[in-house]
Structures are given as structure tokens and as C-alpha cells.
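QUALITY CONTROL LOG
STEP: pairwise intake check
CHECKER ROLE: data steward
CRITERIA: each record must contain a sequence immediately followed by its C-alpha cells, with no blank fields

ENTRY 1 OF 2
RESULT FIELD BELOW
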Amino acid sequence: MSKSTISSLFGGASPFTSLQQHMRHVLTCVREMPSFIDAVILEEQDKVELLKEKIFTAENDADRAKNGLRDHLPKSLFMPVDRRDLLAVLTTQDSIADVAQDIAGLFIERPMSVPEPMQKLLVELTNSCVDVCEHYGKIVEELDELVEMGFRGHEAERVEKMLEQLNLLEDKTDDQGIELTQILHRNEQDIDPVSVMLWRQIIEWIGDLADNAEKSGDRLRLLIAR
């Protein structure tokens, strides 16, 4: 099935194309996170503010793309996948940008210094989580080819291997998050109690970037399988 044939089924752009466009906005948002965390560590508040604005702008762009896809998705037209499954993928991948916005917003509401023992692994965890999101983004970019092949054959096998790799990459971030939390606990006597609580939340949220990318991949796997 050619792309023009796919588009004609939907009276315009394929919803898979819209899903890809949405994920590109999500990645624009997430890609600011390493620089944002670096600025937080260096206590460069002006840069923190600037990057927060970039993250919020990209998240708003993702929301507009999400709402556009929802509003224009056919309700009673032939589709190669279940409408509900497609919306589930959209919702889960949108949550990646939501979490990035939450992280940035928290540091604006309550600026905090990063305890020195946590700095190196915080950077590593953030980079690893962004890598997971990037990998998921590559899977989404394969959707056009996958639809053309009827969700079968070599392309389907290739995507399945990419999904397996996604799970392995996310596992690494789980280990890093646990280690970072342990470092926090070992040093919490030097941190005020409110900051300890907030750092636990931040570590969890950074991990959620990767976790939500993995969940999006799992939903994509179900969509493809059906």
C-alpha cells in the first residue's frame, strides 16, 4: 500500500504521520533536559529559566499536535488499526513531554542545589532517559514503512527487535535511578527534609521519561499485533 493510498483512506494525512509529528515535538521538549540539568547543577538560574521556557513551548506544541490528531481522527472509517489503540499510544507518548514540563516547573518553583555526590549520576540518568526516548522516537518513524508492509514481514521483525532494545535501555535507567536514590539516602542528613522529599520526586520523574517511552513502545506493540 503506497503512502498516497494510505492518505486517501483518511481523506488527508495518515494518523500515523500525525503521531510521528507529535513525537517530534515530544523529543524537542525532552532534548532540552540534559542542558537543563547541567544548568541546575551549575546554579545558572538565568539559563534554567531560559531552558524552562523552551521545554514549556515544546510541550505546548506537543499538546496542540495531540489535540489536532484527536480532533481529526476518523470515528467510523476503515483503519488498519483500532482507533482506541492509536489514541492509547498518543496519550502515553504525550506523557513524556508532560513529565519534562513537571521537572522544569518544579525547579522554577523551588530552586535547589544538587548535592555534589548526586551530580555525576544525575547527569548520567538524565542522558540515559533521553536516549530511551530517542530510541522510541526512531521506532515511531518506522510506522509508515510498517503500515505499507501490512504490519508483517521484515519491517515488522525489525520494529520488534527495536522494541526489545527499548526495554533493555529502560532497564538500565531503572538501575541508575535506584543507585541515585541510594546516594540521596546516604547523604540526606546534609539536606533539608523538604529537599530530600523533592529529590525523590525528581529522580522518579526523570526515570518516568524512560518509563513512559517504554510504555508507549508496549502500547505500540499491542497496536501492531492486532
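ENTRY 2 OF 2
RESULT FIELD BELOW
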Amino acid sequence: MNRENVQVSVVIPNWNGAHHLRECLDSLAVQTFTDFETILVDNGSTDASVSLVERDYPWVRVIGLAQNLGFSAAVNVGIRKSSAEFVALLNNDTRARRDWLERLVQGLWDWPEASFVASKMLRYDPPHLIDSAGDHFNLLSGAGNNLGAGEPESLHNRPAWVFGACAGAAVYRRSLFDDIGLFDEDFFLVFEDVDLSLRAQVAGHHCLYLPEAVVLHKRGGSTDSSSPEVITRSWRNHIWVAGKNLPPLLLAAWLLMFFLRTIRHWLIGGMLRVLAFGRQRRENRPGHSLAVLKSALRALPAKRRELASIRRLGSMKLLGRLRRLPQPLGSSLAKK
């Protein structure tokens, strides 16, 4: 499974995930689709991750980084080091069903208008509720969220056109990266997949959700979403997702809503919560939050200029498209 001229490259980012890797890699070893290679990009782990893989999974290509550069940088290294037509990303804390990869590849064959495909991600523990059935984008808040999160999987059994894919289990055409670029490494982690999905949408690409492509995901197994560091990055990256990608009119509307929400949050007691938390963690003090906000806004002009050439849809066309998502297959969406 680690050879040249394969059709799919499966890239797994890893940081101190030795306790997850066996289950993840064992599920790949029994896939019904076999024309793929597996690349594990290790983010400077200090546990037994690398030795475990090198000893017990010789078919996995390991690329070791000297330090933890974050999710975006790790998967970008894997994408650059691969050459397959399709690139699948898979979290280390997942277990893929045997036909997961076959279903994703078949979807790309059957729907050439799809530039990337979202899996049905189920929560690992019974009753295996939906973790993500593709991603949705809220135009008012400018934030992305997992479709169907916490709902029974039976409610999301139909293929559909969706806004985007959770990068924890998705497949991308290499041509998409050639067109719009790779993941933004400044994000480090959190919302980097929402950023890529919005960049793809504004450039005119489409994402397909396939409920038959199933993985079980240990939510929070590889990232502590409650940590102050992750919370701070989430806030900054939330600003960047909309600020980088939205066409001018939608961006203006988003900025107005953002500042109104921010003022409201502070006025109704958000500052008190930050101050209370800041007694334990200095980085969550209001001054730090303001510094993060200023830094994020200062970086926006340069980031917007970098993406000017791929913002092909104007505000009204993008608004119409995003308001219709998700849409069942066979709709006219894919033709626009």
C-alpha cells in the first residue's frame, strides 16, 4: 500500500497519538479499496508514535517533523510529499469502515463536478450519533459548524451537496489544491478546514457528502477544545475565515455583525467570565483577547490580497449558493 502511482494518498497528521494509531491504521489495512498509500506526518511527538508505526506498520510512510507545527502544516507536508490524483485526510483518532475509501473514490468517479467529498463521521461511543455529516456555513455569524452534530445517523442517510468537509475524514482532488492552494498554516489548528471550504466555494468548487463513507471519531481525542490556547485560536481563526474569503458586500455585513456581537458579549458579562478564567490562565485576560483581535485584523489585508484571484463569485452569487446548501444530488446547484 506504500508504492508509486497509486490513485489515493491517505495523509494522517499525528501528535502524541500512539494510543489511537493502532485502531486507525488497522482499519486502513483492511480497506476494500487497495490502490492507496498511507503517509503519517508526525508533529514532533514525544510518545512512541513513530517507533510503533515503523515497527508494526512498515507499509506506512512516516515523515517526522522536528516540532509540533499544527494540523495545517502537517497535512500540507503530506500533500506535498504525495502525488496521487486524490488526497484523503484522516484523523489519527478515527476508525474507518472497510469500504470507507472505496465509497469516497467512487463518489469522485461518479460526480466529476465534486472537488472534494465529506464522510459521515459518527461519534465513537454508542449510540454513534452524528459527529459530522459535512460542514455548514452560517452567513450571519461567519462561522462553520458540523452538520447534524449530535443527531441520530438515520437522519443523514442521503447524499447531498454541502458547504464543505470536516478534514478529519475527507478526500480532495489534487486539482482543488492546485487551484486554490493548501491549508493556511497560520491557523495552526481549528477552522482550517472551514477556511479551505469557503475558499473552495468562493472559487466555484463543490463539495459532496456521502453517507455510505463512514468513520468513527473519538471527538476531542486529538484536540482539547476547552483549552485556553484552542479557544483563543478559535476566535482568531473565526475572524480570518470570513475576513480572508468573503466578497466585499458579504464581508462588510459580516464585519458589522461581528463587532455588534463582540460589543454585546462584553456588555452582558463576557468580560467577567474572561477575568474569572484569567486568574488561572494569563493568556485569557481581556488585554490578551484584544491583542489577538488586533493581530488578526492587521493580518487580513495581506491575506485577502493573496486570494484575490480565486474569489470568482461575487457577494450575491455566493450568498445564493450558500443559502441553498445542503441540497440533494440531482439539483441544479452542481451546474452553477
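INTAKE CHECK: passed for both entries
DESCRIPTIVE NOTE, ENTRY 2: The CA atoms of residues 72 and 212 lie 27 Å apart.
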